[in-house]
Input
Amino acid sequence: LIRRFIPKGKRISDYSLDHIAFIEEWMNTLPRKILNYKTPEELFEIYLDEIYAS
Output
């Protein structure tokens, strides 16, 4: 997924931290079919709630 923003052969260090943060935010808030159309961020919060509830 990161290749949508940073082409193969380019160094990540050539990009600003703001741009990397944007990519990270986009990837973590993108619903995924394999996650039953939930986002990685949503599932992370659910798992944290389960851990703290026990």
Remarks:
- Residues 4 and 23 are 9 Å apart (CA to CA).
- The longest helix spans residues 40-53.
- The chain is about 50% helix and 0% strand.
